[in-house]
Amino acid sequence: MDISPQISKLIQNPVCFLSDSPAAGDGIAISSRIRLARNIEGYPFPGNAPEALKKEIASLVRSAAVKSRMFPARSSYFIFPEELSESELAILVERRLASTGFVKNPQGALLIASRDEKSSIMVNEEDQLRIQCMTPGFDLDSLWEKISGIDDKLNTYLEYACDEKYGFLTSCPSNIGTGLRASVMLHLPGLVATGLINPTLEGINQLHLAVRGLRGEGSKNHGNFFQISNQYTLGITEKEAISALAAAIVKLIDGEKQARERLFESNRNMLFDKVGRAYGTLKYSYHLPLDEAFYALSCIRLGVDMGMFNAIDIATVNRMQIALQPGHLGCQIENFCTSDDCDERRAFLCRTLLKSGIKKG
Amino acid sequence: MLCDICKKNEATIHIKEMHDNKWTSINLCAECAKKNNLDASPDTPGVDITQMLIGLGKALEAQGKKNIPTHQHSAKPENLPVMSNCPICDWSVADINKNHGKLGCPACYCHFGELLENSIAKIQKGTSHVGKNPLNAPQNEYARFQYTLAILEQTLAKHVAGEQYTEAAKVRDAIAGLKESFAASQREKEESFRQAVIEGRKHARRIEEEDV
User: pLDDT tens-digit profile of A114-154?
Assistant: First the structure.
């Protein structure tokens, strides 16, 4: 398969939102992300803009991104989704640089990303600009400082559509005001195993926070990953929205820790059994569907977090987490695995990675 | 006021929608609203405007429009055409429904203001922005200018067609005044925007020097 130069450069690096250091967020808060929705005054929203106008907007944003020095031309990615194949687009989604909605409408769209992938702009998604910053672990405050700085610099070159009453105007009224959506991705296998997840998530909904799957809006629960984000954008300041979310995340992390302790104390054999079977699944399977692989990997991640393995480290788990998804899977093991079947290739990859990732002793 | 559907209970939910250039209003009790998926309250998180609009459409369809009191909205100035499409981007209520509650352009917030206000209040924490403001003035000035101009031009065309030349002259003057005041405010804005750009460049130079 031919891969575009920018995509092949991307996949050589580990993703920016998974930390290989065991200390980051106790392994429960996997990553934090903030995005801002912005539009340029005098232009229709992308859903109502012809392709030519979208291209004009993309060129305006590109020029502002470069001139503001937030995304220098030589050290940033400027990717046009319409030039990419389906599996290359899948890679962007899997690396969380693009949303599924963005890659479904590639005409006139542009993705601008810093070399480390931690800051990026989707141009002509639902809004003309979706600026986002990501980091591993749980750190919303410094993310806010960073993204607000990028936003101000871009605003020096782009005049944003805004309104005295409604603040930043967005295509969907659910984003008007601050246009801010902050989210934290949590790995909650303890709460799922103890059956406490549903009441917990109901409680989260009561706090006017939204719960989504691994890939944000519209995605389902994959491998015990949950994304918690703020729902309100109008009548609330950015800092209030972020601290309300942060307070809930602290409680969820605490709840997950307690659930894990309870499992370890009262149901240790069941826990070991789950983790052991998951290890067996990944190491010895010859046909591995994505959902099954994600579930098994979640159990392994739990085992690693709880110090149950001395043979596998979190870096291997992170590597597998990304590599076994369809887009990355298609690009990485072409030379080694001849099977056309995605599930067989995934099984092959897991066997290979587990063999190479095991530490001595 | 009694519920338009059951005609028994007190109506506690009041919803308006544009149909064939006329405002249609529907007043429902909590029970009938729930039956028609229109029971969004501020305590119900994640309520989608689209769902509410679709729900409203269904409720109107089910009941037959003739049963529901319809009246021309008197709050709108007489000469302003009450139309379902945004005069700037031609987006209609049907487009909002079809596109899951999304609007066509910033001016749609002026045009569909009345329609959106209640729904926004239901899905958001407040009704006005309290967060950070952009560097440009926090007013949807350009969209408002375009919107008002489009409305005035439509009124002018109507007067000319009806040979009401005195009225037409008044509207023509209003258009000239509007353009002039917008141009003046743009000049002022451009100046402050230019200053901001200069500041930005200075900052960029500073970064460059630091890099060296």
Answer: 999 999 999 999 999 999 999 999 999 999 999 999 999 99
Residue found under tokens 């954008």: A233
Q: Which of A261, A282, A303 represents a domain boundary (last residue)?
A: A261
* B160 close to A (CB below 8 A): no
Are A256 and A284 contained in the same domain? no
Q: A175 and A57, same structural domain?
A: yes
Helix (H) or strand (E) holding A184: strand A180-187
CB B129 within 8 A of CB A178: yes
Whole-model pTM? 0.76
Range of the domain at A212: 5-261
Do A250 and A206 share a structural domain?
yes
* Residue at which a domain ends, from A261, A289, A311: A261
Nearest to A169 among B46, B135, B140 (CB): B140
Contact criterion met (CB < 8 Å) for A234 and B120: yes
Write out pLDDT tens, residues B84-101: 688 888 898 889 888 989
